[in-house]
Amino acid sequence: MSEGIKYSIVIPAFNEESLIEESYKRLKNVMDTTNEPYELIFVNDGSRDGTDEILTGICDNDSHVKLINFSRNFGHQIAITAGMDNAKGDAVVVIDADLQDPPEVILKMIEKWKEGYDVVYGKRLERKGESFFKLFTARLFYRLLKSMTNIDIPVDTGDFRLIDRKVCDVMNSFNSVREKNRYVRGLISWAGFKQTAVPYIRDPRLAGETKYTLKKMLKLAMDGITSFSYVPLKIPLRLGGFLSAISAIYLLAVLILRIFGISHISMWGIMIAVNGFFAGINFMILGVFGEYIGRIYDETRNRPLYIISKKVGFDKNNEDNKR
Ligand code: UDP
Ligand code: MG
């Protein structure tokens, strides 16, 4: 029944034995109400608990369910990518296994998709049951990233979203968007197409602990920033320019004061100004390197120059030529 699938639901899971069965049931109940063909693709990201056994059992009993098992833990973003690679549906939904994103919201996303939107992302109005630290750092991170990039990456949205087949194809196409340090939600924003939001309230985790350790969170944040912003590479140039400029002004002032005998400023003062000036130049040279490295990075990433959503009139010409 792989052909004609309307919806693919991609569910990454890492050590989720305490809730995966319940998660499957909720998703199944919601998807059954659509009365349209769907598949649930679980991606087991190298779990070391019973997740594999439970999912294999579910697969055996329900033909809607598919399982991709990783040989080790490759990380959430890679798990999502593997699910999207293997999804057959006309629309693909990515959702966490821990039921923090209520499966019922998928139905609202589908409505929006049927209205003609290609990307429908879930926007978190509120996040329940999460630590102050997590809420604070997440809020800060989304705003920092937004301020550092030209791409319109919406704030307070995770990977819980629906994407149309054509957006999924762009993400999956080889030699284009196959970045290794992936920040999937950013790539989807970057891809463009008609995007809209569905607001929802994020529930607490159904069971177990977060699988996003501080280390994994930092890695995700760094991937988000380095994939979509040059700003860190530009810091030395700006800082150096600023430092050199104020040192030069200071030096000029000191020299004038000395030459006209208004005030006597020691050689030390002058040396500090000269030193600051050259330190600034050093920074600026680093910044110039940064600009080049940024461009090399851009070239190696292999993102396509553009993505076409529609072409009109081209086939018509071909027909005319044949006649
Ligand atoms: N996850 C994964 N691989 C990882 C870490 C997490 O596949 O290395 C999955 C996890 O099982 C869950 C989703 O990614 O389905 C989100 O993780 P989690 O709920 O732990 O993150 P949080 O909601 O706390 O940010
Ligand atoms: Mg979670």
Give the termini distance in whole angstroms.
Answer: 41 Å
Instruction: Kindly report the oligomeric state of this protein.
Output: single chain
The number of helical runs is: 11
Give Rg in angstroms: 26 Å
Query: What characteristic shape results from the CA principal axes?
Result: elongated
Strand order of the biggest β-sheet: 3-2-1-4-6-5-7
Structural class: alpha/beta
* % residues in beta strands: 5-15%
Counting DSSP E segments of at least 2 residues, the number of strands comes to: 7
Q: Kindly report the average pLDDT value.
A: 88
Task: Report the major sheet.
Answer: 7 strands, mixed
Low-pLDDT parts are none
* N-to-C SSE string, H for helix and E for strand: EHEHEHEHEHEHHEHHHH
Q: Which ligands accompany this protein?
A: uridine-5'-diphosphate, magnesium ion
Helix content: 40-55%
GO molecular function, one term: glycosyltransferase activity
Pfam families: Glycos_transf_2 (PF00535)
Main location: membrane
Subcellular location: Cell membrane
Please describe what this structure looks like.
It is a multi-pass membrane protein. With 323 residues, this protein is an alpha/beta fold. The protein has eleven helices and seven strands. The chain has a seven-stranded mixed sheet, with helices on both faces. Helix 1 (20-32) links the parallel strand 1 (7-13) and strand 2. The chain is elongated. The two termini are 41 Å apart. The mean pLDDT is 88. Magnesium ion is lined by residues 96, 98, 100, 205, 210.
How would you sum up this structure in a few lines?
This protein is of the alpha/beta class. The protein contains eleven helices and seven strands.
